[in-house]
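debug: dumping io for the single-chain case to check the tokenizer round-trip. Nothing else runs in this session.
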Amino acid sequence: MTADEFLKKYGSEKSAAVAEAAGTNLAYFKQIAKGIRYPSAKLAHRLVDASGMELGFSALLARSAA
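debug: decoded output
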């Protein structure tokens, strides 16, 4: 699942919790979701883990718009 799909499915509250558990914040997560910013591989792994494997590692690093 992409960050944009995750944000649409679960909303800001759960997305914020996942972002914070991964060591970032909701604002940065939203930038990732919209394709404005891209996480490092380390942050992408942390986001995948924090989401319970719902977010896709490859989807987070994809350089095309979600």
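debug: round-trip ok. The helical segments are 3-21, 26-33, 41-50, 57-61.
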